[in-house]
Amino acid sequence: MSFEALPERLAQVRAELARRAVQPVTIVAVTKGFGTDAICAAAAVGIGDIGENRVQEAVQKQEELGARSQELGIRWHLIGHLQRNKARVAAGRFDLVHSLDSLELARELDRRSTTPQRVLLQVNVARESQKSGCAPEEAAALAREIAALGALRLEGLMTLAPLTDDEDVQRRTFRGLRVLRDRIKEEVGVWLPTLSMGMSGDYASAAQEGATVIRLGTVLFGPRAETP
Fold it and tell me: What is the mean pLDDT of residues 181-193?
């Protein structure tokens, strides 16, 4: 598959971020549904942060790339829901796991990790029943518990906004995560600098509300063939 349009698409994203972001933003290129050629194309234009939704798909790509992954400077992100029975496989394979959403999952990943594992707590700010993430009112207590685990390094929060073009709805969701992060610092004393929020359809709104990490697939690579 050709990714000739990637440099131009990335330039457009960066121009939008320069116009709307309130702080530096890390772009994670989401390669779900694409092959390792997408990862190599991203690395070639300076994106070393690669996001995968499914553990098994990530493992297959890591094994296919082998030593090239390190040569390309790839930093692997798990951005999709992590099931407890996949914690053993995920442990040690990702630079950052975005999707912890329960104490049980956190404890399992902690138990399986032999080296420090950077993680984010996923919060279902919009309270959508079909999406993962803890309830906002549970986040402070969970953050306290996860931060106390020996192998995990809690660095921030992650959320998904409702699928809508309404920027007010998008920004309200992202603002909710930022406000929650600030409240956790005040109530729990845990500072969580990373806010992973914003995807291809709403990253500009997320950037305006303080995102430090955005997760982009379609806007960089074009439409993908969904895997089952």
Answer: 96
